[in-house]
User: Which sequence fits this backbone?
């Protein structure tokens, strides 16, 4: 499996980091986790067009993780020569979010149907709302979900992709919790959105201080990785965006708790498992 960090940003705009989105490629399948700012631009950078994205997993409905979902829906619909339903798996609330997105797109959908004779139906999006357990199985690829803790955002889920003995966890935004530990158990790769508490505490803006109580810190990501016995910890969605030259400090904060491989994600970083 290849894990490709399409976007490693957060709500804070960064010139180098698109919004949070991760692509897992396994057995010829393209599984997209979250749809942050610029997701289709980054997907294009790895040769993946919107028509080829058939399966989307959402961890939660915070805007930074879904803001370009509407772009994905519209682009793949307008560019697919034949009807091409988009399958979306996400927490409870995903159906309502999709319905509202399609409602928002009503005018555009009408314009395109009026203009193109061979485009006669609106985009089809098939939603499955999930909580835990096996949520996807196709050929040799399985995806399992567990509830995570990002309160007051509720419900939220993390995912574990399994393929021929290899495993990859896409945790999303969450504090350490039992669901996360279950997902991470002996995983080859664990991708965790993180904040750097030591930096946030120095920024005197209450709204930024608020984020401390519902994200994993870098240290906590290291602790989760150690507890679960994962192989490689990948830090993504770093808040605040790392100042160039300080990348090793982020890794070192996690290293105090975890002796495996630690990578601070950058856009398009690819991590591969053996299977
Ligand atoms: Zn986020
Ligand atoms: Zn969030």
Assistant:
């Amino acid at each position: 499996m290849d894990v490709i960090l399409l976007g490693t940003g957060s709500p804070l705009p960064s010139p180098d980091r698109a919004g949070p989105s991760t692509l897992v490629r396994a057995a010829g399948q393209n599984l997209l986790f979250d749809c942050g700012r610029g997701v289709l631009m980054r997907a294009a950078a790895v040769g993946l067009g919107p028509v080829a994205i058939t399966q989307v997993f959402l961890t939660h409905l915070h805007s930074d993780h879904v803001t370009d979902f509407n772009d994905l829906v519209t682009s793949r619909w307008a560019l697919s020569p034949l009807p091409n339903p988009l399958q979306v798996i996400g927490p409870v609330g995903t159906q309502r979010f999709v319905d509202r997105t399609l409602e928002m797109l009503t005018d555009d959908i009408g314009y395109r149907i009026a203009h193109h004779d061979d485009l006669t139906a609106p985009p089809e999006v098939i939603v499955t709302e999930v909580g835990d357990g096996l949520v996807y199985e196709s050929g040799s690829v399985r995806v399992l979900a567990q509830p995570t803790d990002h309160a007051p955002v509720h419900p939220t889920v993390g995912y574990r992709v399994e393929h021929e003995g290899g495993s990859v966890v896409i945790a999303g935004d969450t504090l350490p919790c039992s669901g996360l530990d279950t997902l991470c158990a002996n995983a080859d790769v664990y991708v965790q959105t993180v904040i750097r508490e030591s930096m946030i505490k120095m920024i005197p803006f209450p709204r930024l201080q608020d984020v401390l109580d519902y994200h994993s810190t870098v240290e906590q990501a290291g602790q989760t990785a150690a507890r679960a016995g994962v192989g490689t910890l990948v830090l993504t969605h770093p808040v605040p965006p790392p100042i160039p030259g300080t990348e090793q400090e982020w890794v070192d904060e996690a290293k105090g708790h975890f002796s495996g491989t630690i990578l601070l994600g950058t856009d398009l970083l690819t991590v591969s498992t053996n299977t």
Q: What stands out?
A: The first strand starts at residue 2 and ends at 7. The domain at 2-272 is CATH 3.60.15.10 (Metallo-beta-lactamase; Chain A).
